[in-house]
Amino acid sequence: MRANRSCNTGIGIALGLALLAGAAGAQTAPTRDDIVGKLNHFEEAADVDIPALKQQVMERAKTRIKNDPGPVNRPLIAPDLAKQPAFNAQIQFDADTPIIQPESYQTVGRIADALVHASLLPYTFLIVGHVESNQKTREANAILSQRRADAIRDVLVNTFKISTKRLQPIGLGEEQFLDRARPTSAVNGQLQILTFAKLPENEPARPAAAAATPATKKPAKKHH
Predict the structure, then answer these.
(1) What is the distance between the alpha carbons of residues 4 and 204, in angstroms, rounded to a whole number?
(2) How far from 130 is each of 6, 109, 137, 186, 210, CA to CA, in Å?
(3) Burial class (CB in 10 A: 0-12, 13-18, 19+), 134
(4) Which region, left, alpha or beta, applies to residue 117 given φ > 0 means left and ψ of -120 to 50 means alpha?
């Protein structure tokens, strides 16, 4: 009996610690208001052509320049983006993949909650992927950062029903470090949400509900 009690006590303690660890992890997720507070200071749209920027990132990541200044001194590829209101999210992905780890689901949900807050509905946003400097090529990291930005956009659209017109994913790889002084720091792997531009006034911020088809009136039956 004592052995069973000891075993049960051990299991109980293990479960309790697991629950506490889960609660502690959950507490690290930002609140909706934290995110709204970072994103609602929009002043003007960034003068950045996103399709052209995607091409520039890949071209620069592929090019081997003899006089490359190195990660610490590498110039920002899109300095105008650094001026936009930004929320930096610590999203955990499986290694070398765009698969979001379960402990980051709550953070993605909070981002979705913020994007439908009344103060942010008039705006479009960039989902910006970054990668810290590592043993992989800059080209591989640029591709990975784009795939991760795409993955977050897909979850926001498909799971949380955020309008696709409000979201643009862009991967910057190693071409725009968040902490240029420490290129290998995990900070450089954070994902950013940037307030990018105002929606055109005729564009709905939410997906439009399908218009109800009026029922066809059936001719009244004749009574004999």
Answers:
(1) 62
(2) 49, 20, 14, 10, 37
(3) middle
(4) beta
Q: Are strands 123-130 and 191-198 parallel, antiparallel or unpaired?
A: antiparallel
Per-residue pLDDT tens for 30-69? 999 999 999 999 999 999 999 999 999 999 998 876 667 7
d(CA 176, CA 82): 9
Q: State the pTM of this model.
A: 0.77
Distance CA 34, CA 36 (A): 6
Q: Which amino acid is at 49?
A: D
**Residue 163, token pair as written in the block:** 């309008």
From the number of C-beta atoms within 10 Å of its C-beta (0-12, 13-18, 19+), residue 158 rates as exposed
Q: Which amino acid is at 51?
A: P
Confidence of residue 205 (pLDDT cuts 50, 70, 90): low
* For residue 72, pLDDT beyond 80: yes
